[in-house]
Amino acid sequence: MAVRIKILFWLLLTSTVGWSQNFDGGFFAGLTGNQIDGDGLGGYDHVGVQIGVFAKRTFSDKWSARLELQYIWRGSREPVSDTSGLYRTDLHQISIPLVAVYHWDKISVEAGISGDINVITSEENIYGEFGPDPPYNTFVLNSIIGVNYQVTEGFALNLRSHYGLTPIRDTRIVQRPPGFFNDWIKGSRTVTMSLAAYFYF
Predict the structure, then answer these.
(1) CATH number of 22-200
(2) Which of 91, 145, 146, 147 minimizes the C-alpha distance to 116?
(3) What residues contact 53, with CB distance under 8 A and at least 6 apart?
(4) How far apart are CA 107 and CA 83, in angstroms?
(5) What are the Outer membrane protein beta-barrel domain coordinates in residue numbering (predicted)?
């Protein structure tokens, strides 16, 4: 019996070590440039931040996957001008991205999806803050396309483009022209460009 326990313990230990060799983890932080498709304001005038942790699973020399948990600050802002109403909206979200990564030397490309939960939402203009009307959806899905550059073994830079697969709001101020995208894209959707530094443990 004692021998069987020792063998079982040895198998569990060696299998755990083998699996851990394929996993990496760490944390990241960066900036976001944001807008909302459908609110009538163009340009990445809203600047936010992102910070989080990640786990990376390596499948081969070319392929890996990364699961992340992050706080991300999205929104939209009207450019300041003589006629500006100083409108802005802020979306503070908890996001869970999952991306597949294809590696080529120090450069890799990624694509995936994220589930985002709106924790705090706010809108304001020159007269002050007011309640979102209509309200923002609590849960949304975003698409992710990005590129990574591995600066050192423990440090990488990541540039991403995010676009809402589901609407952040069910209404649009600016309607799309007739055609395929008018039929497919309903409501207002977040659009984000992000730049982050990834640090591996």
Answers:
(1) 2.40.160.20
(2) 91
(3) 25, 26, 27, 28, 68, 69, 70
(4) 44
(5) 19-168
What are 50-95's pLDDT values in tens digits? 999 999 999 999 999 999 999 999 999 988 776 777 889 999 999 9
Bridge partners, residue 57, by sequence: 23, 65
For residue 12, pLDDT over 70 is answered with: no
CA distance 39 to 62: 40
3-class DSSP state of 141 = strand
Nearest Cα to Cα of residue 61 among 112, 107, 19, 105? 105
pLDDT of residue 179: 55
DSSP, res 169? B
Report which DSSP code applies to 177: P
- Read off the pLDDT band of 4 (50, 70, 90): low
